[in-house]
Specification:
Length: about 270
């Protein structure tokens, strides 16, 4: 079997990989939902869904720092990485051990493509197709729901000290657009640092979204933004539904509907 990953690397397998190390939390969850729990031999400390996996599998580090010797000892057939989550140095180091598949996700379509690639690589094409069909069905329903909702101008914060936001060229921004949430930082790229004192100049800003990850924003942060913005409201949002691709998308659209109901009071 030959397959190109999402950054163009050609992978070749004589047989189905049966020992998997996943260095990406959302992809670990996807493997589980594809029925591949038994094939997972290593994961990161951030692979928290489903929670029991970390108790049963070898933790090999985080997404930015790994213990390469622990990975070698697991004798994996394949290591799963992501262009954004993992560094180039990690990918290169892992390639000395075995085949490395690198995902690159900016859209729902690319997320579905990853699901289907995993279906092919791990010989679970029927299950992958089921996930694809369920995501597409829920997405179609959500598009029908959201079409009559008003556009809201928002800022989506992911970090504090320095203050950082999600901008253009991110999966988060893609989902904001789907939700008819107009990102005031869409003219910037990736995850820029911003000066929150200047947010007072954004007269059209209606909602500040404070993500639960990677920085765990709390209620006190919403109150702080309430004091420094002219009229915008600040609320906490579940960052996993805005940044985790793969099978997480199955339930994401239901969450987005609930979020829109919360935001209804902010629209004019």
């Amino acid at each position: 079997m030959k397959i190109k990953d999402q950054i163009g690397n050609l992978l070749e397998f004589d047989s189905t990989p049966i020992r998997i190390v996943s260095l990406v939390p959302s992809q670990t969850e996807l493997l589980y939902d594809l029925g591949l729990e038994d094939a997972i031999v290593g994961l990161t400390k951030f692979c928290v869904h489903p929670i029991h996996l970390k108790k049963k599998k070898q933790v090999v580090g985080g997404t930015k720092q790994i213990n390469i010797e622990k990975i070698k000892a697991l004798q994996p057939d394949i290591i799963l990485c992501n262009k954004e989550e993992n560094t180039e140095a990690i990918v290169i180091a892992c390639q000395t051990i075995c085949s490395v598949h690198v995902s690159d996700i900016m859209t729902i379509e690319e997320s579905i493509d990853l699901i289907m690639q995993y279906g092919q690589i791990f010989n679970v094409t029927n299950k992958a197709q089921d996930l694809k069909d369920e995501i597409n069905s829920n997405l179609k329903d959500f598009r029908q729901y959201i079409k009559d909702q008003p556009v809201l101008k928002v800022a989506y914060f992911i970090w504090k000290d320095p203050w950082m936001v999600a901008a253009n060229g991110t999966f988060i921004n893609h989902l904001l657009e789907l939700n008819k949430l107009e990102n005031i930082y869409a003219n910037q790229y990736r995850y820029p640092e911003v000066d929150i004192t200047k947010i007072q100049q954004e007269d059209n800003l209606e909602v500040v979204l404070l993500s639960s990850e990677p920085f765990p924003f709390k209620i006190e942060h919403t109150l702080m933004f309430g004091e420094i913005t002219n009229q915008a409201k600040a609320i906490l949002v579940d960052g996993e539904y805005f940044s985790w691709y793969g099978s997480r998308l199955i339930n994401a659209f239901s969450y987005f509907k609930d979020l829109r109901e919360r935001l209804r009071t902010f629209s004019s």
